[in-house]
Predict the 3D structure of the following.
Amino acid sequence: MQSLLRAIYPAQCLLCEELTVEEQGLCPACWARTPFLFGLVCDLCGTALPGVDEGVPVHCDDCLRTARPWDRGRAALRYDEAARELVLRLKRADRTELARPAARWLGRAAAPLLEPAPLLVPVPLHRTRLLGRRYNQSALLAQALGRELGLPVAPDLLVRRVRTRPLAGRSHAERFALLADAIALHPRRRLEEGGAVLLVDDVMTSGATLAASTEALRAAGAGRVCVLTLARAVKDA
């Protein structure tokens, strides 16, 4: 039956209509333009850095300038070219099936962050935006990653209690100010005291949303908090 289905509906690239060998994969051309992050990366946000990975934590200029309340961080992709297409399709075009292949990439990026085994927690979406979009893309990623790695997921542990104005185009300081006290622990949820948490989001830009989420987790008693994003937005030098 599976062979018959493959003959009728052959596997296609996630980004274009080219045929692919595996389901939910990328064709060679799209793979080549997908900016995966590997090698030497910032230990706090995952952005690529020049040099060779010698096993010593290093930090990018952005993370040296801005205090990060979390312990470590990684990202699967740099937010440009094909990565931007993937994120926007997942976020705004109802392409929820993209969470599954994204979880494979996230799983590889998350390898240094999995000891001790963490609870996966998505960055929350305000309820009014959730009604409009019908799903939280970060929760979809966290749930798919949980299945991929066999880790527990708390999809509604955090809530965004304030609907902040759009962050796009705002300065670094404005982003952090808008998100101050905007995220908190769900009033009917509890977090294990001192437990390890892996925060999951689609894109990190300034880090303001991840910082607000981390602070809410710390206030609720979390121990080690790491962050994982599908993509990391980085300004060109």
Observations:
- Residues 34-232 form a domain with the Rossmann fold fold (CATH 3.40.50).
